[in-house]
Amino acid sequence: xxxxxxIGALSADATPQDTSPRNxxxxxxxxxxxxxxxxFFATLGPRHDFMSAIHTMRFDFKFVVxxxxxxxALLAATDMTRPEIHRSRQRKFLLAAPVLMILAVMFELYxxxxxxxxxxxxxxxxxxxxxxxxxxxxxxLTLMLWAFRRGxxxxxxxxxxxxxxxxxxxxxxFYAAHCFDDSPLFVATWYTLAIAFVTGxxxxxxxxxxxx
Amino acid sequence: xxxTKTSDGVRATSEAEWAGLMRAGLSGDGVAYRKLxxxxxxxxxxxxxxxxxxxxxxNADAEDVVQEILLAIHLKRQTWMQDQPFLPWLNAITRHKxxxxxxxxxxxxxxxIEGLIEILPDDTAQxxxxxxxxTKLVSRLDGKQQAIVSAISLDGKSIRDTATKLGMTEVAVxxxxxxxxxxxxxxxxxxxxx
Lengths: 212, 194
Known about the structure:
The complex is a heterodimer.
Chain A: H1 3-12, H2 21-43, H3 50-53, H4 57-80, H5 96-111, H6 117-122, H7 126-149, H8 156-178, H9 184-209
Helix pairs in contact in A: 2-7, 2-8, 4-5, 4-8, 5-9, 7-8, 7-9, 8-9
Chain B: H1 5-26, H2 30-54, H3 62-75, H4 86-104, H5 133-138, H6 143-154, H7 159-166, H8 170-190
Helix pairs in contact in B: 1-2, 2-3, 3-4, 3-8, 6-7, 6-8, 7-8
């Protein structure tokens, strides 16, 4: 095929482009929250004392830290769909969730006598936690990868990892509404482990699916 | 960055002109879009042959690289944010694809650092051969998709003529053609199984 012929053919496909990758992320976020929510209510649902738990600081903090993670990762992600951006300037905000988590852990270590640290950390159902967060995150992860495919990420692995962070944060926020372990020691250990798994999965899938 | 005044001038002119053409292209103006692709192709050709030569691959198949880059520009054109400069976007796509091509050939991507605008266009005529890699890839498309893509790209038929010839609606031809182009990009990425 001559290059002129190709150019002619590509101009024949020059249909109006109106959906920017940013819109795709908005759709993926809405769809991801819906699917994760649907799976959550179909399987676990909120804990029975949800209404009184929301008056406790430790319970609320679980939503703050997981949603801050999802939102900051989403900010960086919309930048990463642009091929000319190697590292998003928004990526510094990704530090927000880890910093919040560290502060909360320090607070907890100060408030709780040291002989209870281990009990708090181990909690009641860590295995359940590390299983269900990835389960809730699967829908959002799929949609975030779909949104990234509409973009042109310079580094597909890193983009996939960001998709995983968003999905992991969302999945963890839903799980938090069910989970009775509210200590930051538990959250910092098991939520982090579960979200790291989703992030790794996202990076792996991204390295395959987000090449262009 | 030590730029002479002239090259700054060229940069500003091309930026404004190409961005304008791309904007028109994104809103569906095929003529403007074609002008843009025609304007950048001589530079792509020089960029590709320079890159291949530097990697010691030889530039015999530079035209294949040019065609793969054009296809990538086309399929990713909606990722250019119209409130941002156009040249950095174009350079990023071009560089990404050249690195990708070299990686597939087992070479480390040592890609020219100049942007397309610093490259003097290669004014030599395009190679006469029509047996590019892309032609082979078209033959690997499924039946209907292959019929659509070859009618439009190899035979130069319009969407309407293709629709009449294949007994399909124009919308179906458009959709099939676009999917065919995406499939071609994926086949490029798989590399040659041969």
